[in-house]
Amino acid sequence: MNILKVILVTATIYHAVPEQTDSTPDITASGARIDINNPLKHRWIAVSRDLEDKGFVFGVKVCVTGAGQLDGIWTVQDRMNSRWTNRIDFLVNEELKDGKWDNVRIEIIDDDNRL
User: Could you report the per-residue pLDDT of 46-62, keeping only the tens digit for each?
Assistant: First the structure.
């Protein structure tokens, strides 16, 4: 696994519900379908639009550190509202209610399957 880019961001959580997404909460901005019964199993994140310009685009694998139990490998599959910058959102199950971390390290990685 090779590290391709590293950035520090604020990380938060979101649920696949209309109040936090749009009228189609089971479909990400990339068009991927979410298993509403267990969204966390996908290990998908949404990124703020400014991060897309830095290479954090749909399908990119990201290694996250500094977010406690949510540390690990995630895939970019969603896009955040334009009001947010320098931020990621973890797609999680509704049982997980609170989550905000500052100075979370995200690394674009070459998992030998994508590049």
Answer: 999 999 999 999 999 99
